[in-house]
Design brief:
Helix content is about 25%, strand content about 25%. By secondary structure, it is α+β, with helices and mostly antiparallel strands. The protein binds zinc ion.
Length: about 60
């Protein structure tokens, strides 16, 4: 069965904002493909939420 989301022609481009969570030691921080980044946090979950907040402010994107 093919259950992926339908991809209409012309709508398959990559999002402008793609969040990645990076970790350094016990800290984690969110970075975006647009150049935005969040301060290092002790909580990976908080870093992820900050990344989600950036996406919301920017009009959409994805988190890796
Ligand atoms: Zn961004």
């Amino acid at each position: 069965m093919h259950s992926e989301l339908p991809a209409a022609p012309g709508t398959t481009r990559m999002p402008d904002h793609r969040i990645a969570i990076s970790e350094r030691g016990s800290f984690a921080f969110a970075t975006c493909s647009c150049g935005w980044y969040a301060p290092a946090r002790r909580s990976r979950d908080l870093a992820r939420r900050e990344g989600a907040g950036h996406l919301a402010e920017s009009g959409g994107g994805e988190i890796d």
